[in-house]
Design a protein that fits this description.
alpha/beta, three-stranded mixed beta sheet, six-stranded parallel beta sheet
Length: 300
C-alpha cells in the first residue's frame, strides 16, 4: 500500500511512518517541516502534493494538538485544524484516493463527558475548548465528503496518548522532565496542574497500529474511538511516576498549569474499534510511563 501522511514530522506522525514502513507500506509525507514543506492551509499546495503522490491511502494527522494553547489563538486553531482538513479532503476527492483517515479528538465530546461515564461514538459532541470545536468541525467536513462526494473516509476520536519523544507541553512528558530535572538539581517538589482530572491514556505505538487497522478494516463514514477503555486520575499518574524517581519528591499544584475550563473526565469505549479490527493494546500504562521517564533521562 502507498500511504501519504500529513503531519509526518510530528510526534504521532513519526511513529505512524515507522509503523507503516515496518508493515511494508511505501510512505510519502505532507508536512510544513522538512526540505519540501507544505502547509495544510495552502489548498493549492495540498492538492498538488496529493496528486503528485497518488497514494492509496491518506492519513490526516497534521494540526494543532495542544488543547490549552487553543484558548489564546482560536482562529489559528480553526484555520489549521478545520480549514486544513477541508483542503486535504478536497484534494483526496480530486485525486480519487481510495481510503482516508481523519484523526479527531475525544476533546470534541466536551460537556457530554461530565454526564456519561464511558463515551461511545453515538453520543452528542458538546466541545468546551476551541480545539475541541475545531476537531468536531473537521469531523463533520469528513462526513460531508463521504456523503456528498463518496470519499471513503473514516474518522477517529483519539483519547490521550503518550510515549517517548512527545513534547513536554503535554502531561506525561512534562512530569517526566520535571522529575528528571529534580533528580539532577536536588529539588524536592514537582509542579503539576489539575490533579483531579481523569483521562484515558494509550501508548502512541498502540494508537498508530489502530490507525492502520482502521484504514484496512474501518467502515467509511464511521467514527471510531481510539482509547484504552479505562480512566486514571492525573494524581495517580503523577504518583506512579514519582514512585519511579531516583530521589524522594513531592507534588505542588501550580495555578499557571491549570486550564481555565477543563473536561473533568474523558474515558472512552473501544468496543467499536475492537469489533472492526481486532485491535488490542500491547503496552501497559506502567511500561509507557517508564519508557517516557527513560527517554527524558537520556536527554542532555
Amino acid at each position: 500500500m502507498k500511504a501519504l501522511v500529513t503531519g509526518a514530522a510530528g510526534f504521532v506522525g513519526r511513529y505512524l511512518v515507522a509503523h507503516l514502513e515496518a508493515m511494508g507500506d511505501k510512505v510519502d509525507s505532507l508536512d510544513h517541516h522538512g526540505p519540501d514543506p507544505v502547509d495544510v492551509t495552502d489548498s493549492d499546495a495540498v492538492r498538488d502534493r496529493v496528486a503528485e503522490s497518488a497514494p492509496d491511502a491518506v492519513y490526516h494527522l497534521a494540526g494543532v494538538s495542544h488543547v490549552g494553547s487553543s484558548w489564546s489563538a482560536p482562529l489559528e486553531v480553526f484555520r489549521i485544524n478545520t480549514e486544513g482538513a477541508i483542503n486535504v479532503l478536497r484534494a483526496c476527492v480530486d485525486s480519487g484516493v481510495a481510503r482516508v483517515l481523519v484523526t479527531g479528538s475525544a476533546d470534541a465530546y466536551g460537556a457530554t463527558a461530565a454526564e456519561i461515564d464511558v463515551l461511545r461514538e453515538d453520543l452528542p459532541l458538546r466541545p468546551l475548548s476551541p480545539y475541541g470545536v475545531s476537531k468536531a468541525a473537521a469531523e463533520l467536513c469528513a462526513l460531508q465528503a463521504y456523503l456528498a462526494d463518496g470519499l471513503a473516509v473514516t474518522c477517529v476520536r483519539a483519547f490521550n496518548h503518550t510515549g517517548p519523544g512527545q513534547l513536554d507541553r503535554f502531561l506525561v512528558p512534562s512530569l517526566a522532565r520535571r522529575i528528571v530535572e529534580a533528580e539532577r538539581t536536588g529539588a524536592k517538589d514537582v509542579k503539576v496542574g489539575n490533579l483531579d482530572a481523569i483521562r484515558d491514556f494509550s501508548d502512541v505505538r498502540d494508537v498508530v497500529r489502530a490507525y492502520r487497522l482502521l484504514v484496512e478494516h474501518g467502515v467509511p463514514g464511521e467514527v471510531y474511538n481510539v482509547c484504552s477503555g479505562s480512566g486514571v486520575r492525573v494524581a495517580d499518574i503523577a504518583g506512579r511516576m514519582l514512585a519511579a524517581a531516583e530521589t524522594e519528591l513531592s507534588l505542588s499544584v501550580d495555578p499557571a498549569l491549570v486550564r481555565p475550563i477543563e473536561v473533568p473526565r474523558l474515558i472512552g469505549s473501544n468496543e467499536r474499534l475492537r469489533a472492526a479490527t481486532g485491535w488490542e493494546p500491547a503496552h501497559t500504562l506502567e511500561a509507557t510511563l517508564a519508557d517516557v521517564l527513560s527517554y527524558w533521562r537520556d536527554q542532555p
